[in-house]
Amino acid sequence: MSCDAVRSESAEPETASTFALVLVRRGCFYRRINGDSPLLDATSAYFQHPDDEQIINHPFDGGDVCTVITLSPEIVPDKASEARAGFARIPTPRVVDALHRQLLAACGFAIDDSELLDATFRLADQLLQGEAAGATTRSRASAASRRQRHLADDAREILNRAPATALIALGRELAVSPRHLSRLFHAQTGMTLARYRNELRTRTALEAVATGAPSLSRLAAELGFADHAHLTRTVHRLTGQPPSVHRQINGRSEFRVKRISHPSGQATKPESPPVCSRKPRTRAPSSRSRSTRGSGRQQGCQTSKSSG
C-alpha cells in the first residue's frame, strides 16, 4: 500500500476491520491508538486489531509505503491479541527486514501459493512470536519512560526528515545535551544514533532501488551519504550485498499481488493491480478497503508496492 498524503496535524479516526501486520518500507507517521502515539518508520512495524480505533498523522510531506499482511484470527498468538500497547510499535531488526524483502521479491516471481504462504508465515512468526515476550512489560511503561520514548521519537522524526543531521545539531533542536540524547536514544531503541541513521538510510535506499531509482548518486545525496561509493559501502556492510544485487533480486517494476488464504479449504485468488494511491480525505468504496491518513488503504493477506 502507498500513501501520498501531505503533512497533517489531525486526521479523522478510523476503525480497523481485520488483524493485520503492517511493516513500513518508506516514510514515517504517528499512529495514535489507545491514548499513545508511537512514531512508525522503516525500522518498525505494528500489529493491528480488528476493532482498533486509530488516527494517522504525517509530520511532513511525502506519505509512506507499507506492506500489509492480514492474518486469520486462528494464527494470531494469544499475547499479540491481548497485549495491544506492546505491539503498537514493533522494531524490525535486520533479520526481519531481510525476510520482508525476500517476501516482496517472491511476489514478483511465479512461485506457487504455498511457497508464498510459507514466506509470509516466516515473517509474521519472526515478528509476533519474538515480540510477545516483552509486550506486556512495554504496555505498562511508566510516564517517565513514555516521555523518554517521545523524545527518542522526536529524534527519529528529525532523522527521517533530514538524515544527515549530526548529533550536536539534533541535541540543539531538541534542547537536550548530545550526551543525554545519545544515552536516552540507545536505552529506548536498542541502537546508537549512528547505527539507527545507517539502518534507516540503508532501508530507504533499498526500497528506492527496488522501485527503480535511476541514479544512486542522487539517492546518496538525498539520504546524506558522502557520495555514491559511501552509499554502496554502507549497504554492502549492513546487508552483505551491494545495491546492484538488491536491484536484480528485489526489482519490483512488474510486481504481482496475490491474495492467499490460511489453509482452511478456501480457494486462493489473484488480486487486482498492486498500486493503491491515496488522496487525503477520500475513502475507497470497496468493502475490503479502509481509510488511513484520511484516505483509502487497500488490505488483504497480500503484499503491495508503490510506484513512487
Main sheet specs: 5 strands, antiparallel
Are there runs of 5+ residues with pLDDT below 50, and where? 132-139, 253-308
Can you count the helices? 10
CATH topological fold name of the largest domain: Jelly Rolls
Taken in chain order, the helices and strands follow as EEEEEEEEHEHHHHHHHHHEEEE
Rg from alpha-carbon coordinates: 19 Å
Class of the largest domain in CATH? Answer: Mainly Beta
CATH-derived architecture of the largest domain: Sandwich
Helix share bin? 40-55%
Strand line-up in the sheet with most strands: 1-8-3-6-9
CATH homologous superfamily (4th level) name of the largest domain: Jelly Rolls
Count of folded domains: 2
Number of DSSP-assigned strands: 13
Bulk shape: globular
Q: Decide which structural class fits the backbone.
A: alpha+beta
Beta content comes to 15-25%
Separation of the first and last Cα atoms: 11 Å
